[in-house]
Amino acid sequence: MSHPDPRPDGFTLPAYGDRSLGDVVPAVARALGVGNVLDGTGPSGLVLPDAGAYVVFLIDGLGAELLRRYAHAAPFLASLAEGGSVGTAGVPSTTATSLTSLGTGLVPGAHGLIGYTARIPGTDRLINHLTWDKHVDPLDWQPHPTAFARLGAAGVHVTVVNKREFDGSGLTVAAHRGATYVGADRVGERIAAMVGAAAYTPSLTYVYDSDLDWTGHKFGVASTQWLQQLAMVDAEAEQMREALPASVRLLVVADHGMVDSAVAARVDVDEVVELRDGVSLLGGEARFRHLYCSRGAVDSVVATWREVLGERALVLTRDDAVARGWFGEVSPGVLPRVGDVMVACHDDAAIVSSADFPYEKSLVGMHGSLTAAEMLIPILVG
Predict the structure, then answer these.
(1) Can you tell me where the transmembrane regions are (predicted)?
(2) In the predicted model, is pLDDT for residue 107 greater than 90?
(3) pTM
């Protein structure tokens, strides 16, 4: 299947309603024969083979372009890619947004987890969607029934296999509630739990592995460490396929890709002081910033950021970003979470802050923007 068409600005738009992460579980539901359970999820560009049980294995950080480039390190996954397809993450191309789209079947503008960090409306605080905020109820923040819960209510045995530390977390409740949660910290545990859950018919078992993403952030996707980790996750996927009966389908996807950001390509808003003018709160992440502006400052902020960044990033108002369909249809309650100004980086650029996000400055690999390297994800059936 061909890649989604890029825009003239060099970005790849999310393929909502066709081959985005939010379309994966509805496609699985149709393959299980219960597609009618998820209202409004009619036929799309993602068609999967019929089966009584599916295992969805999400490899955090494995973009389609990375798999193609480093196929030699992942021979099993590369063999699946020969007959597989390419889909897209949502916007931004970041874990919390993507995992919630997968678990809910909704676009980011509907489920509301629109970035790594975002403003809590009516406050001057950010919520970190990975670590959450004890003052924010995930059921209020993401009130829609998940696709997992709706399938479970219809008689599908739905299981999440993930690290123990994520059981009951804000992100898990927002994105994956309604499934049976099995804590598993090691590959062997994950495979054993997966085999047990996939014995049910009909069933959907979701398995998550974050190690490749962590390695890419720390060492970069061109590093020996990342290539070794890719080989390990490839072996894990192959072991999963071998452990499952032929009647169970293995579906391998990712939540986003990754790019290495050179130090010379980064702009620190605490060193270019004019970038702080009119910005009351800096959110998002290094590759995709939400700028929350002081009253009446939007136009001047856009002008300043465009002048300073030039071709390193696309700077848009919230209305322009929404009109381009970046988040899909945005509900009124989610709109205030979106920055007044959006900054999406080109190439390997990054917008960092020594004061607000010091940890990001230590990262090598990053993601969040709309480049093909970040947006395109593999959809592999084994």
Answers:
(1) none
(2) yes
(3) 0.95
